[in-house]
Amino acid sequence: MSTFLLPSTLMASLLAATPQPSPASAPTAAQLQVAERLVGPALSEGHAWTRLAEITDGIGPRLSGSEGAEAAVQWALRSFKADGVKAWTEPVKVPRWVRGEERAELLSSERFRGRPLTVMALGGSGATPVEGVTGEVVEVFSLEELATLGERVKGRIVLFNHTMEKPEDYGRFASLRSRGPALAAKAGAVATLVRSLATASLNTPHTGATRFEDGIAPIPAASVTVEDAELLHRLLAGGGPVRVKLVLGCKELPEADSFNVVAEVKGREKPEEIILLGAHLDSWDVGTGAHDDGAGVVMVMEAARLLAKQKPAPRRTVRVVLFMNEENGLRGAKAYAEAHAAELPRHVAALEMDAGGGKPLGVSLRAGEGAAELVRPWLSPLVGVGSGNLLAQEAGGADLTPLLPARVPFFGVRQDGTHYFDVHHTHADTLDKVEPEALAKSTAAVAWMAYVMAEMPGVLPRPPAPPAPAAPAAGPVKSSGH
């Protein structure tokens, strides 16, 4: 993916004026009383759950450029207004991809009978001819293995298989979906099947974004269920050809006008210093985006609602950004960084909630030396919800990546993701998969940590500048969908 970079001279001058961290200090008794007014209502009022029902059951899928995405923008504006939080929209141009028909068939041979395969087009996939595309399947387990096949790929359907078993495996295998189809296209494949990136499956395909670089015509690319990927693997291992017919009716329509939704609780003392709370408003067009990312949306909205009730307001400004188009383009994140380039050095902390509605496990940071010592004294109010500890993992998120060149410190509430990839990017990502108590606990943690960053005397030290990106290899760009 490309990220927005500030000119080096402007960045240097702005960073020179960046607030510097102060010595660590513990919260006062009055500040700890605020914790009771944030954590208590987050746990007891059920407001986040009510809002999650509104965006999932009420609005439904929210793929960028769709009527659902536009309805979500208007819902967010109405909701912020009802909460007494100032909000507005900022324009974003987004891609408009439409799924269409999708079916596949294992063709009969002398060794086995034919049968349907359960597939789902990947976002960004090309269409097949109306009659479909038929080809012999060749299986690979890595992009490196694909590169060794040479002429064997031409005219074939490439099956990208893998061994994902736990959430941590997602990062290991996601490039098979995001980059694999384009690499296969360059090698002459007529279509690709990607084993769903799943930790559980009841014959459920998982969609997601794939990317084709300029000059590479998109080929049909579909996810296939774990069960069907295993079937194809067994048949291929048995020897002899395995042939599949694939029909996809995907369309890439002209780009659409859309919006980020931005809201603020103005700081009382240092309003120019900004704490950003982010989540993405869009979802895939299957399921209703309850975990991905309706839960994140309602958590940061609820944090703003609760903070807006506090008198006096926190020391710094808390800004909520509901990004559009995280799933298949990061257009909202890039548009925000460009529109707010001049003030990025005054973004003193940023959080992204995009890991579902699981219970909180602790707090993470991505900041300079000494950040942990500043934050640790403020964590005691979160002991009761199971997240009063600092974790070793770095905070971050896809929609925060355009903030990296500005060296914005990141903080995060790490959540239990044990079952997140059971339903990720599927028809099953619905409200019933979110536990109300877990959602409430994570909401409480987000609200308190937003207050901590906005209220503590010092700011997080900025992290070192990110390393310069390596020269891009000849191949497709990385997927921005998470």
Topology summary:
Elements: H1 8-16, H2 29-44, H3 47-59, H4 67-82, E1 86-98, E2 102-106, E3 115-117, E4 119-121, E5 133-140, H5 143-149, E6 157-160, H6 170-178, H7 180-186, E7 191-195, E8 221-224, H8 226-237, E9 243-248, E10 251-265, E11 270-280, H9 290-308, E12 316-323, H10 331-339, E13 347-352, E14 360-366, H11 371-375, E15 410-415, H12 420-423, H13 436-455
Parallel strand pairs: 5-6, 6-7, 7-8, 11-12, 11-13
Antiparallel strand pairs: 1-10, 2-3, 2-9, 4-8, 5-9, 10-12, 14-15
Helix pairs in contact: 2-9, 2-13, 3-9, 9-13
Molecular structure report:
This protein is an alpha/beta fold and 482 residues long. It has two domains: 8-94 and 255-455, Zn peptidases (Aminopeptidase, 3-Layer(aba) Sandwich), CATH 3.40.630; 100-249, Glucose Oxidase, domain 1 (3-Layer(bba) Sandwich), CATH 3.50.30. It has helices at 8-16, 29-44, 47-59, 67-82, 143-149, 170-178, 180-186, 226-237, 290-308, 331-339, 371-375, 420-423, 436-455; strands at 86-98, 102-106, 115-117, 119-121, 133-140, 157-160, 191-195, 221-224, 243-248, 251-265, 270-280, 316-323, 347-352, 360-366, 410-415. Strands 3-2-9-5-6-7-8-4 form an eight-stranded mixed sheet, with helices on both faces. A five-stranded mixed sheet has the order 1-10-12-11-13, sandwiched between helices. Residues 1-22 and 471-481 have low confidence and may be disordered.
